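Figure 3 (text version): C-alpha cells given as input.
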C-alpha cells in the first residue's frame, strides 16, 4: 500500500495528471466480456507484455508450471489407456486433485508475476513507457493469464465424466480468475503514484 504522503500528493495532482488518473481507473476497470481472447503461445504473449512495459523479469516459474500441467495431462492419458492401473474411483480422485492443484499453482505464479511488476515499476525514477500504454498492457496481461486459467480448466474437464467434478472445476476457476483480476485494483494507486513521481522528476 502507498503511504499517506503519497496519497496526499496524488490528491494535489495537476489537471493533466488527473486525466491520466481517470484513464488508469477506466482501463483497469473490470467489464463483462473481458478475458475473451485467444493466445496461441502463452510464454510469447507474457514476454511481449513485459517488453512493452520495459520490465526485465524471467517467466521461468510460469513456464515451469505450465510444463508440469502438461505432464499431468499426459500422465492421465497414459493412465486412461491402462484400465488396470488404478481403480476408477482412484483415477477420478487423482484427476480432480491434479486439476485443482494446477489451477491454484498457475494462479499463484501469475499473482506473483504481477507483484514483481508492481515492485519494479515503483522503483523506476523515470517514465520509460507512457502511462496509457502501461495501463493497457497490464490489463491485457491480466486477460491473457485469466484466459490461460480457463484453458487449464477446459483441458482437465475434457478428461472427466463426473458432473460434480466439472461443477467443482468451474467454481475453482471462477474463484481463481476473480482473485487474479483483483490485482488490477492493486495497480490503480501504483500507476497514479508513478504519474505523480515522474511528473516532478
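Below: residues designed for each position.
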Amino acid at each position: 500500500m502507498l503511504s499517506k504522503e503519497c496519497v496526499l500528493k496524488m490528491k494535489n495532482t495537476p489537471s493533466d495528471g488527473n486525466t491520466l488518473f481517470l484513464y488508469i481507473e477506466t482501463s483497469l476497470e473490470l467489464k463483462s466480456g473481458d478475458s475473451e481472447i485467444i493466445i496461441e503461445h502463452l510464454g510469447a504473449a507474457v514476454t511481449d507484455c513485459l517488453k512493452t512495459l520495459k520490465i526485465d523479469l524471467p517467466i521461468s516459474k510460469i513456464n515451469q508450471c505450465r510444463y508440469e500441467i502438461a505432464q499431468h495431462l499426459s500422465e492421465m492419458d497414459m493412465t486412461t489407456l491402462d484400465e488396470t492401473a488404478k481403480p476408477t474411483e482412484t483415477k477420478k480422485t487423482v484427476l480432480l486433485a491434479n486439476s485443482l492443484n494446477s489451477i491454484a499453482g498457475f494462479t499463484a505464479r501469475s499473482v506473483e508475476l504481477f507483484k514483481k511488476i508492481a515492485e519494479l515499476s515503483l522503483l523506476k525514477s523515470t517514465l520509460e513507457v507512457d502511462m496509457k500504454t502501461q495501463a493497457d498492457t497490464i490489463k491485457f496481461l491480466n486477460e491473457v493469464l485469466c484466459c490461460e486459467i480457463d484453458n487449464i480448466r477446459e483441458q482437465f474437464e475434457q478428461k472427466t465424466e463426473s458432473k460434480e467434478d466439472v461443477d467443482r472445476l468451474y467454481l475453482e476457476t471462477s474463484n481463481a480468475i476473480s482473485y487474479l483480476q483483483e490485482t488490477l485494483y492493486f495497480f490503480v494507486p501504483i500507476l497514479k503514484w508513478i504519474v505523480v513521481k515522474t511528473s516532478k522528476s
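The CA atoms of residues 157 and 166 lie 6 Å apart.
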